[in-house]
Amino acid sequence: MNDQRDTNGAEGGRDERLAPALGPELLVERLGRVSYAAAHAHQRSALEQRVAERTPDRLILLEHEEVVTLGRRTRDSEFGRAELELAGLPVVEVERGGEATWHGPGQLVAYPVVRLPEGRRDLHLYLRDLEQVVIEVLAELGVTGSRREGLTGVWVGLRKVSSIGVAVRRWTTWHGVSLNVTNASDRFASFRPCGLDPGSMTRVADHAAVPEDDPLLEWAFERAFRSVFGYPAGSVR
């Protein structure tokens, strides 16, 4: 299989087939706010260690400094690099599937670096599972998240709240999920995020109160991630 695959745009709902649990161990890292370059280097190191089976599965949770990342499906006609850079938004091409998206303060980013075992080596299923994690996080807050047929991510009503784009090496995943929590929505206005109209994006804070003791929803995300993928509960509060 190729080092990376473009798995954005998988169609249909989550595959409900019984799939084996991952694990048994999950290392959770909370990096705080970091630059994209630093996070990417850390993620690549984690990937290499996991492929070599030197470390367990890992969930990296963080918040990026502002950046626009371009997945491998991005077409130059759909964004203006010069305009973004003039607006103070650095632009980085990355290995994940999908198109252009924004990352920055107030947005939770989750990078699972996990080895997919036999029975879970279906990237469409993996994307549906990541969507399910976000849907369960929203449900904790009383918000209904949904999927869109033919698209990848999670919506609240007519607007997208979470974007997903992954890459895989030797059935080990990297890149992952962004969830708009309290970020400034206007930062999507300068381009077509995920190929969509700029006005199609929303954030959790527009639909529910974000807990003061979990301002990025990191703990909620970890709980849901462990539940969906079958990891032990660990020290999740």
Overall geometry comes to: globular
As a whole number of angstroms, the C-alpha radius of gyration is 16 Å
* Fourth-tier CATH superfamily name: Bira Bifunctional Protein, Domain 2
Q: Please tell me the CATH architecture by its name.
A: 2-Layer Sandwich
Number of helices: 4
Helix content estimate: 10-25%
The strand count comes to: 9
Distance between the termini: 38 Å
Main sheet makeup = 6 strands, mixed
Stretches where pLDDT is under 50 for at least 5 consecutive residues are 1-17
Listing every helix as H and every strand as E from the N terminus to the C terminus, the arrangement reads: EHEEHEEEHEEEH
Strand residue content: 15-25%
Mean pLDDT: 83
Helix and strand composition category: alpha+beta
**Within the largest sheet, what's the order of strands?**
1-2-6-9-8-7
Which fold does the CATH topology refer to?
Answer: BirA Bifunctional Protein, domain 2
Integer count of domains: 1
Q: Could you name the CATH class?
A: Alpha Beta
